[in-house]
Amino acid sequence: MTHFNAIPKGSLIQTPETSKDGLFFLKEGKLRLYKTNQEGKQFTIVILGKGNIFGEIDTFSFGTRGLYIETMEESLICSVSKQNFEDFLAARPLVAMKMLSELSTILKEKDEMLEKLALGDVRDRILHLLLKLSERFGVEDGEYVRIDLPLTHQEVANLVGATREAVSVILKTLMKENVIETGRKSLSISPVKVAEILELTYS
């Protein structure tokens, strides 16, 4: 591995035009991977957190080619050579299995989010997003789970491909229904209530 680079919050570290081969390890921070439509509206595909690897090499793909990648907070990232990555996996098969399992989960979330963006209404997209974020970045807080991400109404709108106004109305309704609680750039949900609304089995 090379030295870690500290990348400020809000930095665009990849665009569809600048996608390049290579693997990168996220030691600290969070990254948002998203697409845009012809009108420039952003559609978040997946959020990566501490310990995730992203990028592309000829023998391994993390599904990030053709996407925008932006830091959601200050992040520490380092590049990993193809040879070092392959040597690492060969020497640590259990770690390799865990990494493949994590990759499978991320790709599944990516497919689910694309499906929700295509088929779900804005309310369903918001609920699905919040449930997934609580599973990956949640902190127990009584009967609620606080999502450990800086989420404003505009950022939620970007995550689900909707307008800020529409998101604000829906979040206000969900608060009245005691499905979520909001604070200054923070958001907590009741996973059980969200899952019930989405007719999912929460465990």
UniProtKB/TrEMBL annotation:
<dbReference type="InterPro" id="IPR050397">
    <property type="entry name" value="Env_Response_Regulators"/>
</dbReference>
<dbReference type="Pfam" id="PF13545">
    <property type="entry name" value="HTH_Crp_2"/>
</dbReference>
<dbReference type="GO" id="GO:0003700">
    <property type="term" value="F:DNA-binding transcription factor activity"/>
</dbReference>
<dbReference type="GO" id="GO:0003677">
    <property type="term" value="F:DNA binding"/>
</dbReference>
<dbReference type="InterPro" id="IPR000595">
    <property type="entry name" value="cNMP-bd_dom"/>
</dbReference>
<dbReference type="InterPro" id="IPR036388">
    <property type="entry name" value="WH-like_DNA-bd_sf"/>
</dbReference>
<dbReference type="InterPro" id="IPR018490">
    <property type="entry name" value="cNMP-bd_dom_sf"/>
</dbReference>
<keyword id="KW-0804">Transcription</keyword>
<keyword id="KW-0010">Activator</keyword>
<dbReference type="GO" id="GO:0005829">
    <property type="term" value="C:cytosol"/>
</dbReference>
<feature type="domain" description="Cyclic nucleotide-binding">
    <location>
        <begin position="1"/>
        <end position="106"/>
    </location>
</feature>
<protein>
    <submittedName>
        <fullName>Crp/Fnr family transcriptional regulator</fullName>
    </submittedName>
</protein>
<keyword id="KW-0238">DNA-binding</keyword>
<dbReference type="Pfam" id="PF00027">
    <property type="entry name" value="cNMP_binding"/>
</dbReference>
<dbReference type="InterPro" id="IPR036390">
    <property type="entry name" value="WH_DNA-bd_sf"/>
</dbReference>
<dbReference type="InterPro" id="IPR012318">
    <property type="entry name" value="HTH_CRP"/>
</dbReference>
<dbReference type="InterPro" id="IPR014710">
    <property type="entry name" value="RmlC-like_jellyroll"/>
</dbReference>
<feature type="domain" description="HTH crp-type">
    <location>
        <begin position="120"/>
        <end position="193"/>
    </location>
</feature>
<keyword id="KW-0805">Transcription regulation</keyword>
